[in-house]
Amino acid sequence: RDVERSRGLGDVYKRQYEISKDQKESWKHYHICDKDHIAIIMFFPIIWIFSGGFKTLTEFTTSCNFIPKNFTLENYAYIFLHSNLLLYVRNTVLLMLGTTAGTLISSSLVAYPLARMDFKGKKVIFSIIIATMMIPNIALIIPQYIMFGKIGWLDSLLPMIIPACFAYPYNVFLFRQYFRSIPKELDESCLLYTSPSPRDLS
Length: 202
What we know:
Elements: H1 2-52, H2 57-62, H3 74-82, H4 85-116, H5 122-131, H6 141-151, H7 158-161, H8 169-181, H9 184-193, H10 198-201
Helix pairs in contact: 4-8
């Protein structure tokens, strides 16, 4: 009887396992389909604008067709011949690289000691940095404009790149939280096999 009972329980557990396995597979396929639909919805405006570039102005403003009826390249030819497209691309690349590099270097250097080192006044310094986030950006526009005008930085990319090299408080907060999520055992292993701090940060 015990053998039969164990076999019966084994069959029950086997059926439950097969049912749960089938449910997991169906749920997995549902998630994949759901992600595909979300991706299509997210990329649809980009595809719509791209297809609109091959339409005439009249068709673009009056028609809702996804595929252009009167296919034309005049819009792109006009952009390259009658606008400063290369200048816009250059400014975008310089601004992107400058602000990204300045933010990564400055914010990480400020956040690392606040997250991994122990010294007096650490909490006070971090509180002051976070308190500056309460100052609205709109209140700083006119003073910054006057300051950049006196320095001679107007009509240049410097007012947007240089401030990123001085550690924005929000970025410092994000870096600090990320550094705190890393186990300190990794720091100790770095101290055993390499030189301290600067290489630890890298």
